[in-house]
Amino acid sequence: MTGPPPYLAGMTDALTQFPPTLTEARKRLAQFVPHAGVEYARLRNFDHGPGAHDHVSVLSPYIRARLLDETAVTRAVLAQHTTAEADKFLAEVFWRTYWKGWIQQRPTVWDQYLHDLNRLRDDVQSQAGLRARWEEACLGQTGIAPFDAWAHELVSTGYLHNHARMWFASIWIFTLQLPWQLGADFFLRHLLDGDVAVNTLSWRWVAGIQTRGKTYLAQPDNIAKFTGGRFESVTGLASEAPPIDAPEPPAIVPLQPSDPLPLPARYGILLHGEDIDLPRMLRHASEPVAIAYSETTDRHSPWTMAPHVATFRLEAARSVLPDGVTLDVLADAQAISRWAQLHRLEQIVAPYAPTGPARQALDVYEALQDGVPLSLYRRSLDSTAWPKATKGFFPFRKHIPDLIATFGQ
Ligand SMILES: Cc1cc2nc3c(=O)[nH]c(=O)nc-3n(C[C@H](O)[C@H](O)[C@H](O)COP(=O)(O)OP(=O)(O)OC[C@H]3O[C@@H](n4cnc5c(N)ncnc54)[C@H](O)[C@@H]3O)c2cc1C
């Protein structure tokens, strides 16, 4: 009998529940597709707890790393369902696309979040009362049974059901009266699918900042119903959710065109935590001289990230390598530069890195003097869809059929 791979030693349940490989991602997609139609539409809001998330796909860690992208997921689903049957599921898949496009055109929303978080880190250190309440929430010791259960599930598995995320964020903000940015950070440090765009904007949505004035209130009856009675008669929850004050969103910064392929003979591929879809890169280019991975996971938070987050992305990147190829892991811009020189590269190509730490590391590299040129290669769906995320999701949603129609082109 073979034991777990060595990288799982000392890890939480997260990597045993979500093995970080392309094979696993494809297997799970194939298993879920038959359930992505009317069954998903009817049952997706039920959260039956750890190990029993049977009515949703649980694909988010794989989609987040782009082992599976929206195109692959949509094609697989529409091979077995009509567009009408799969409408709910595809809308959820495209919510992600929408959030990515929204923040990409307003990158200072992420900068502002990081700025607020650094200020809050000082507050947590200097204010004993805030620190105690924050620690109780993160440790799942608030005395609110479902909230504490979700905190434990998140930390040990790296995943929470969507409904649990909504209830959790609402209780964090409106019952525990903790700053939303600290809650978003707690999620980002533990979620395997933790995403700069989706996480930040979903927390802003619950707080009433994203859809201005419209908040989400967690209610005991709703929790009891959709957790299958696991949490009956929860008491002590806030009975109202007044919107959190925040500045208006910044003006839109238009998306720049993608850099072109093809490439010179001596080029290297630089994967990163935002996109490890090597098979896609290889479909469009000749064989690279070297392949590397830029590691920036720990820059998502001023606190320590759960180790399973970085391990998931790195091992997932290793899982897409052709046989016999090794992956150079590069910690910063100087390491990228040394790697390019070592392999005498004429060009580096990386999958497009949207707003966030991976992009920031690449920007620092590009600012180095005498670096090998870097090009960022963006998927055509992202280039087409993201500029449409100018207003709310519902105007964006109208474009979904046209976006799907472009997949075959
Ligand atoms: C406060 C809060 C924080 C969140 N943080 C993240 C995050 O960091 N990363 C993340 O991927 N999702 C996040 N979500 C969205 C959603 O909860 C997860 O995508 C979903 O629970 C993942 O589980 P699943 O793969 O089983 O989803 P399914 O229901 O099977 O959906 C399929 C796919 O569609 C996408 N999707 C589903 N729901 C949403 C949604 N509401 N918004 C955007 N995309 C969605 C995901 O890629 C998901 O894998 C957050 C939601 C809330 C309320």
Automatic annotation (TrEMBL):
The keyword Lyase appears for this protein: yes
Residues that hold FAD according to the record: Y40, F89, D193, G194, D195
InterPro entries, per the entry: Crypto/Photolyase_FAD-like_sf, Cryptochr/Photolyase_FAD-bd, Cryptochrome/DNA_photolyase_1
Keywords linked to the UniProt accession: FAD, Flavoprotein, Lyase
EC number: 4.1.99.3
Cofactor(s) for this UniProt protein: FAD
Transmembrane segments: none
Top-level lineage group: Bacteria
Protein's recorded name: Deoxyribodipyrimidine photo-lyase
Species per Swiss-Prot/TrEMBL record: Sulfitobacter noctilucicola
